[in-house]
Amino acid sequence: MAHGDRKVRRMRGSRNHGYGNTQKHRGAGSRGGRGMAGSKKHRWVRVSKYMPGYFGSKGFTRPRSLVSRIRTVNVGWLSERIGKLVEAGVASESGGVYTVDLGAAGYGKLLGDGLVDVKLNVKVDTCSPRAREKIEAAGGSVETAVQEESSGSEAAGGSDAAEETGG
């Protein structure tokens, strides 16, 4: 834009340059500060109402070396795709019973969502109680590497602790 076309040239001689009162078009003070300034003072109502969660702790990110991501699979998915798994060589079938090693397929945990309509013998690292219940109800079995802890061991641990402190 040429300098002669600017508003400041047109407004020469005008006190306020079209902004009304002289105080209305000053620096950042006329708008209460720049950006988020005053968000804990005079802009608190706006920030607390329209930006909940702007202030406060947001937690932290765990180091990647400590985060383990376990791949999971549901029994319904396993039951639906057992034919494709046999073709791929991940599972085998003998006498109407399918044998699957989920650990070799890259899965670490078996979950219980879905329906099981075939007999499955599954080998996996960990398994939810609901998944085990559904597979055994269909006539199959689950072999896990990690034994699930029962709630009875917690009660026993509590009584041992009481004996130690009392003695």
Strand order of the largest sheet: 2-3-5-7
Structural class: alpha/beta
Please provide the count of β strands. Answer: 7
* Rg estimate, integer Å: 34 Å
Number of helices: 7
How many domains is the backbone divided into? 2
Keywords:
167 residues; alpha/beta; Molecule: Ribosomal Protein L15, Chain: K, domain 1; Ribosomal Protein L15, Chain: K, domain 2; 4-stranded mixed sheet; 32% helix; rod-shaped
Strand and helix map with partners:
Blueprint lengths: L6 H4 L33 H7 L21 E3 H6 L1 H7 L2 E4 L2 E5 H4 L3 E3 L7 E6 L1 E2 L1 H9 L3 E4 L6 H16 L1
Parallel strand pairs: 1-4, 3-5, 4-6, 5-7
Antiparallel strand pairs: 2-3
Can you walk me through this structure?
The chain is α/β, with parallel strands linked by helices and 167 residues long. The chain has helices spanning 7-10, 44-50, 75-80, 82-88, 102-105, 129-137, 151-166; strands spanning 72-74, 91-94, 97-101, 109-111, 119-124, 126-127, 141-144. The strands form two sheets. The protein has a four-stranded mixed sheet. Strands 1-4-6 form a three-stranded parallel sheet. The chain is rod-shaped and about 100 Å long.
Can you summarize this structure?
This protein is α/β, with parallel strands linked by helices and 167 residues long. It contains 7 helices and 7 strands; from the N terminus they run H-H-E-H-H-E-E-H-E-E-E-H-E-H.
